[in-house]
Amino acid sequence: MIADFAWIRPEPHGIHVVPADCWIDPSQAVANALVTHGHADHARGGHGRTVATPETLAIMELRYQTREGALPVRYGETIRLPGEVDVTYVPAGHVLGSAQIVLEHAGERVVVTGDYKRRPDPTCPPFEVVPCDVFITEATFGLPVFCHPPIETEIAKLLKARADHLDRCVLVGAYALGKAQRLIAELRRAGHHDVIWLHGAMERMCRLYEEWGVGLGELRLVTDATKDELRGAIVVCPPSALNDRWSRRLPDPITAMASGWMRVRQRARQRNVELPLVISDHADWGELTRTIEEVNPSESWITHGREEALLRWCQLHQRRARALALVGYEDEDD
């Protein structure tokens, strides 16, 4: 039988830390919120007080115009909340500022991961393994079919497509927070130092990353380019812009998309993606199961994704687990 940790309760709109009367990643406005990172399915405006890393608070101010009630907590820093709950933020490796929230109360430790990945990422610190009693893990790619390839392989595919079609451009759809900046940083790491052109919706977040010390090289807006300048270029845009009227100004674009969902051919076909790039900011199946083994919790609570398969894996490996039913989590374009 799974123990009932009375001081921390999964509710439909978030995880309630009862002694401190605060909520983790709530989907509605609350008096006290602990936020793991800036994506819209975890962060929102309207809270009375928001506790997060300084980077996440900067992202939330940019995206949701939140400033009042912000309480920054740096990685490794511990704060004491009412009810004798100690809270520490440690890196999750997902996007800039993303954190696992470590809660300690009455001799018990709970780790809430938010979203995380285990692959190296030049734009954010790597995931840290924290042993605990309860491990609350995402399961976005919680099926054995999801085994993400090395990012170097996918970047090489992108650069080859560009080199093979210098009369065209490569238009890459990438989520505006995290994926776009990681893609650009990995292109730079692979030796691509030409101008990378941006859809206007990408600029502010890229500039914020640069303000926090993430070098992205020369970035320019597509609206400032001639058609000839875009031939042989790499252009980054939101996934929603891949096939809209905006893209028609580009020189015969090769349509690409960077997402873990590009492992699923039907998703690529649905979006008319010519060059699917399997690049994810979430842990794949092997990383999810390995992380549970390394953390070695007494219990795992599974949320945000394909909960049933990971729950079954835990059961087959004699690990106590339960699936949570939280609302407000969206299928982001990873």
How does this structure look, described?
- It comes from Croceibacterium selenioxidans.
- Keywords: Exonuclease, Hydrolase, Ligase, Nuclease.
- Its EC number is 3.1.-.-.
- InterPro entries: MBL, RibonucZ/Hydroxyglut_hydro, Xnuc_lig_assoc.
- This is Ligase-associated DNA damage response exonuclease.
- This protein has 2 domains: 8-145 and 282-323, Metallo-beta-lactamase, Chain A; 151-277, Rossmann fold, CATH 3.40.50.
- Helices cover 22% and strands 25% of the residues.
- It has 7 helices and 19 strands.
- With 334 residues, it is an alpha/beta fold.
- A 7-stranded mixed β-sheet has the order 7-8-9-10-11-18-19, with helices on one face.
- The chain has helices at 54-64, 151-164, 179-189, 203-211, 265-270, 285-295, 307-316, and strands at residues 8-11, 14-17, 22-24, 32-34, 49-52, 70-72, 78-81, 85-91, 99-105, 108-112, 134-139, 170-173, 196-198, 219-221, 234-237, 254-258, 275-277, 299-305, 320-323.
- Strand 1 and strand 2 (14-17) form a beta hairpin.
- The longest helix is centred in the middle third of the chain and has 14 residues, at 151-164.
- It is globular.
Q: Please, what is the average pLDDT?
A: 94
What integer value in Å does the Rg equal? Answer: 20 Å
- The number of helical segments is 7
- CATH evolutionary superfamily of the largest domain: Ribonuclease Z/Hydroxyacylglutathione hydrolase-like
Amino-to-carboxy terminus distance: 35 Å
Keywords: Exonuclease, Hydrolase, Ligase, Nuclease
InterPro entries: MBL (IPR050698), RibonucZ/Hydroxyglut_hydro (IPR036866), Xnuc_lig_assoc (IPR026360)
Protein name: Ligase-associated DNA damage response exonuclease
GO molecular function, one term: ligase activity
